[in-house]
Amino acid sequence: MKNQKKHVRIWIVLAVLLVIGIVLVINRYTVRQVWCNVFSPTLPLDESAVWQGGKTLEGIPYAADSEAQYIDLYVPDNVENPPLFVLIHGGGFAFNDAQSRQAQFMYRYFRDHGFACASINYRLSPEAAYPAAVCDVKAAVRFLCHNAEEYGFNAENIAIWGESAGGYLATMTALSAPEAFSDVLCLGETQSERYPMPLFDALVDYYGCIDFVTQRSNFAEEGLITWIPTLANGWANDVLDEYDSLEELWLRKNYADWGEEEKIGASPLHRAERRENGNPALRSLLIHGDADITVSHRQSVELYEALKANGEDVTLKLVPKCKHADDRLFTDEILNEVKSFLLESF
User: Fold this and answer.
1) Alpha-carbon radius of gyration of the chain
2) What angle do CA 211, 212, 218 make, to 5 degrees?
3) Mean local confidence (pLDDT), 79-92
4) Containing H/E element for 330?
5) Number of domains the chain is built from
6) For 262-299, what is each residue's pLDDT tens digit?
7) Strands 54-61 and 116-120
8) C-alpha distance from residue 29 to each of 32, 40, 139, 228, 322 (Å)
């Protein structure tokens, strides 16, 4: 009996090795992507120290529709009238908050380098469907700029960053017309009188999903085995209910039922192609890991090409062997590049 079990284990190991060998021969690209995701290093995030470099104002409400509508704001003391850097967390529209790991990497670095940092919390998809989160971000930005003098930063110099779903929200905010997605009243506004929506100096998009339609085909175009992204993103299944993806949950409609107007209206890519915002001063920096199996790096390539075709000032940085939300995208080396880009944009 023991020998039989031993033989079974040997055959299982051999079968697994055979499958791996076949995949290696047929699709080395998939193996490379999976390897980069499995063996990605983690950077330390020190959460022990209280910031001594300026004002910390967390939980500032910016609207009255939900407890989720608040801002965590950090304003440095060592810079007079610092520029404002708006930060939008990711999480597939369904997870995380203003204190996500990636948002912390950003505000901890930039508040120490002379920027007022506003990490915006917004309603997640289980609470409110599209376009609620976009409306929330725009309301938060209007609130911040209207109250800039009170909080001590310069609303004339303003940039926005987002990662993953937050990259989508940041891009939609920066590229859509100022009056678009204005359904949410920020505190102090009335239906007849809204605070002006600022034009951004800079957009920094970290691996954002830019077009839900092409996102479905990007991985196949890359040559990635199609079930790999589905398997890798299975962590989201608990919230999906009858939907197949986080995007469908957010839109409250299965992909097969999306109309053409919905596909275009929910796409920052189409807004970029139409130059809807009309902001000649906007500069864009797109950063994406080339081993991302959650949001294909082709999403950033498509946005780059659309902005470039319009004569926009846009830079694309594809970082080798980095996965989705990779800690290595938040090293001092890369954040120094982002800082230089921002300072050149103001």
Assistant:
1) 22
2) 80
3) 97
4) none
5) 2
6) 889 999 999 999 889 889 899 999 999 999 999 999 99
7) unpaired
8) 5, 17, 43, 12, 14
User: Whole-prediction pTM value?
Assistant: 0.92
Helix (H, G, I), strand (E, B) or coil at 166: helix
Task: Dig out the tokens for 313 from the structure.
Answer: 């000032």
Residues 70 and 32 in one domain: no
- What is the enclosing helix (H) or strand (E) of 241? none
Range of the domain at 32: 2-38
The pLDDT assigned to 25 comes to 58
**pLDDT tens digits, residue range 56-74?**
999 999 999 999 999 999 9
- Tell me if 48 is assigned to some domain: no
pLDDT tens string 162-188: 999 999 999 999 999 999 999 999 999
End-to-end CA distance of the chain: 75
Tell the residue number behind the tokens 């800039």, with chain if given.
148
> Cα–Cα distance between 116 and 152 in angstroms, integer?
8
Query: Among all chains, which residue has been given the structure tokens 């079930």?
Result: 227
Nearest partner of 118 among 91, 142, 93, judged by Cα: 142
Question: How many residues are listed for the chain in this entry?
Answer: 346
**3-state SS class at 103:** helix
Residue 308 counted as domain residue: yes
